[in-house]
């Protein structure tokens, strides 16, 4: 299927401040737009690329594409955008219509960090769906507020996603939806997903990536600069392991992987006794060579009595990030005869990913019985072992 990328770059970047529109600003030696374009121009799944610019920005645009000169063969002559993002997208779709692609990926010029894997996923979603948008889990609690800043409601966070670009559409479906919105004099949809939804298209969400930020405010540029400086830094991979055991005791549930699992016994523990989160915390602390869970959260300290183990894992991950490091992967094996992991595995992976601020594919969870051998085999207790791979900036001696 033919795939075109439509990059919208006609905004003024008023929230980003500082002189020229943000998509032309220098980011570690290259204009933002050149970085965004390079990702699409070098992607083998994209046939052609159209950039939508503001009429005042021609020189800035030419200077930006000069920075990706060797890759330019898929680039169509740029066209002019409109007053809103929606108008710019529509202008782009109308221009692409002359030799219509089957799939169009609509992407913000202001998102220079979309990875090749994200573009792969967008193309794949576009093959299967009329409309698909990348989304990430929301980690803050979101409130709906009224006109006097009073909280009206708190939507269930599990059903919320923060939506990004590139968004994937069947080209005729999106063009048709945009024409309908323009005919209805609606011009302020903040993304094409909302417009497609309004037009009655089913819109699906595929996995986005938290690193794919939209440069919107000055602080986003500071963060992007920091990240790019970091990417030229040398990292050392470190690996750590963790192991945790709790004896079964009275109760009717156990906490595992941050999820409450009904069970005919509880566990005897100072905290909530979540062996998966404890083993993972120790694995990360092991990779940091920074003691163990007991060093950071002494069992003698009453404040940890009954504590939710979420905070132990979040603390360990926070230490990695404080040191400029990255958690690459965490893997746990649960050892018990019961409860069975299967029905809860995906919920646990999601919860662990949420606590640790990781993607789902960075979180592995397995289980085994011990063939009725040992204390787990005799159902006296439950255990988990974990491994964590992290990267830490190399520090010169
Ligand atoms: N009339 C517009 C408005 C926005 N965009 C593009 O849409 C993307 C996302 O919009 P946003 O981040 O809001 O950019 P700006 O509109 O430039 O920012 P601001 O609202 O701060 O002025 C950006 O790549 C921007 O260039 C566009 O092509 N045409
Ligand atoms: C399209 C978008 O990037 C999805 O998150 C976002 O809606 C653009 O909003 P903006 O107000 O134009 O920045």
From TrEMBL:
4-CDP-2-C-methyl-D-erythritol 2-phosphate binds at residues 244-246, 270-271, 292-294, 368-371, 375, 378. CDD domains: CDP-ME_synthetase, MECDP_synthase. Its EC number is 2.7.7.60, 4.6.1.12. It holds the Pfam family YgbB. InterPro entries: IspD, IspD/F, IspD/TarI, ISPD_synthase_CS, MECDP_synthase, MECDP_synthase_CS, MECDP_synthase_sf, Nucleotide-diphossugar_trans. Bifunctional enzyme that catalyzes the formation of 4-diphosphocytidyl-2-C-methyl-D-erythritol from CTP and 2-C-methyl-D-erythritol 4-phosphate (MEP) (IspD), and catalyzes the conversion of 4-diphosphocytidyl-2-C-methyl-D-erythritol 2-phosphate (CDP-ME2P) to 2-C-methyl-D-erythritol 2,4-cyclodiphosphate (ME-CPP) with a corresponding release of cytidine 5-monophosphate (CMP) (IspF). HAMAP family: IspD (MF_00108), IspDF (MF_01520), IspF (MF_00107). In the N-terminal section; belongs to the IspD/TarI cytidylyltransferase family. IspD subfamily. This is Bifunctional enzyme IspD/IspF. It comes from Microvirga arabica. The gene is ispDF.
